[in-house]
Structure formats: structure tokens, C-alpha cells
Amino acid sequence: DMVWADVPVADLRRRHVKEILSERVDTPHAARHLLTRIRQMIVAAMDEEWIEHDPTHKISWRPDYKGWRAWTDEERAAFEAKWPIGTTARLVYALAIWQGHRRSDIAALKPDDIAGDLVRLKQKKTGKVVALPVLSMLREVFDATDMKGPTVLLTAYGKPFSAKSLTGHMALWTRKAGLPPGCTIHGLRKTLGKLMAEGGASTRELMDVLGHDDITHAELYSREAEQVRMARQGLDAALRVVKGGKAK
Questions:
Q1: 184 is in which domain, residue-wise?
Q2: Which of 4, 145, 181, 228 is the 20 to 30 Å CA partner of 39?
Q3: How many structural domains is the chain composed of?
Q4: Tell me, what's the pLDDT at 245?
């Protein structure tokens, strides 16, 4: 019988395929190619009558995804500990979390786009021109970066990164930092939006920083932060009653 590793193909079930694909949530193209290879193996097994049913039937090449999630404080701390200032990983991280850039804009950012305490660029996705202040956390990273190349971000060979390659690199960097799947560049962008909303930033401020044209998208951050604030106030009121105080 045909085997895959030490497992007979006849024992392969849909849950096994889904689990394999879920491990590649950060690299959907790799998941697609792997599913193609599995299906080729299944076709051969069915042709030899080793199995009767295709366990990959109607399985999506992309794992189930519930949207980009923000990084936790613990994940951010672990990444920063693994990748200190001066590393490429930290530069990508800083541009994503402290200015909310998409991967396409991170890859295309040029030294000339940085002028004093501002980064000015035209977003590739929206075509919108934004000017963003350089926070002290990002300034430290910029000061440790050689700005002599055609782009701020350069590969080990001195060439610009492609936007797509940054997804794979971030997946590698996060794994080396011991982080779980789902810690993505876009997740850092969402982290910034979450931090801004929790700090009381208005919807318009969120839109201007993140480059959103759709107010509905920006309001998601505000509503989530408001829910947390209201819940905290409500539970604090209950706590005061329990401790003998009065709810205000």
C-alpha cells in the first residue's frame, strides 16, 4: 500500500488534511501547493484502488481564517527580545506596529521618504498620500539602519524585498521567536489601531494614521475599545459594591 511518511494513505482523513493546512495559515501559497501534492497522491492511490474516497474533496486550499488578529503584549515582548534593534526583523516589525504600514509599503519605503520626524509616502493599495510622525521607538530603529540603499529595507544581498516575500520572512521570524501562527505583519497594523483606540484616539485619527477611506473599518477599533472601557467601568462598579462602597 502507498504510505505517506509512516502512515498508510488509506488512513488519511479530512481532519488530517485540514490540520496540515492549518499549520500554514501564514503562508497560504505554500498551503495551496501542498494541497495540490496531496491530491496528486490521492489520485494515484484511487487509481490503484488502495482507497475509495478522496479525503481532500472540496477542501479549500486556504485554511479557515477569522481575520487578522492583533498581537498580544507577550508576543510583542518575545519578538523584541529575539530580534533586537539593528536586525531586519525588528525594522519590519517597527514599521508595521509604530506606523501601521502594509507589507507593500514597508517593502517600497525609500530613505527619501523619511524627512525629519515624518515619513511621507503614497500607499500602494489606496493611492492615498500619508505623512506619519516618527515615534521614538521607530526613531531608535531608523538610527540603527543603513539608509544608503534604494529602499530602507534590504535583503542580505543588498536588494529590495518584494512585498510577498515579507509574509514568509515574518512567519520565519515569529517561529524563531517562539510565537504561535497568526502573528503577521497585518496583525501588527491591527495592534497599532487597537492601541490607538484604547488610548482614546478618534475614528478620524485612526483613519488618518492607517489610511482607511472607509469609516466603518476604522470604527471597528473604536467600538472594541469602547466596549472594553465600558465593561471595565461596569465591573469596577460591581467591585465597589462587593467591597462595601457605592456604585457611582
A1: 73-224
A2: 181
A3: 2
A4: 59
